[in-house]
């Protein structure tokens, strides 16, 4: 009986032990990753910035196209839907 239990446990645990760890969903979750708010597409912004979905990301790109490149990161708060909290969440990710 003990042999059957050990064999069952081994057969059950083997696939779990052999499985690869899942990759990170957001590139910004990896240390040292940053995104240039003057060159990134709306899709890239939405994927890499916390609290920014595709709608807000499109607003960032539209603002950039209308007003020219951002001269400082804090200028993002001029975009509708982007506030100080969003900047704080992404301060280590944003670059010009």
UniProtKB/TrEMBL annotation:
Coiled coil: none annotated. Keywords: Signal. The keyword Signal applies. The keyword Disulfide bond does not apply. Residues 1-19 form the signal peptide. GO terms for biological process: protein secretion by the type II secretion system. InterPro entries: Competence_ComEA_HhH, Endo/Exo/Phosphatase_dom_1, RuvA_2-like. SUPFAM superfamilies: RuvA domain 2-like. Pfam families: HHH_3 (PF12836). It comes from the Bacteria. GO terms for cellular component: type II protein secretion system complex. NCBIfam families: competence protein ComEA helix-hairpin-helix repeat region. This is Helix-hairpin-helix domain-containing protein.
């Amino acid at each position: 009986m003990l042999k059957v239990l050990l064999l069952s446990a081994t057969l059950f645990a083997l696939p779990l032990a052999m499985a690869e760890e899942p990759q990170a969903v957001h590139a910004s979750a990896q240390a040292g990753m940053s995104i240039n708010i003057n060159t990134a597409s709306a899709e890239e912004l939405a994927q890499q910035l916390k609290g920014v979905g595709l709608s807000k990301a499109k607003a960032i790109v539209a603002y950039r196209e209308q007003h020219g490149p951002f001269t400082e990161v804090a200028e993002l708060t001029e975009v509708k839907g982007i506030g100080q909290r969003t900047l704080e969440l992404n301060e280590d990710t944003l670059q010009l």
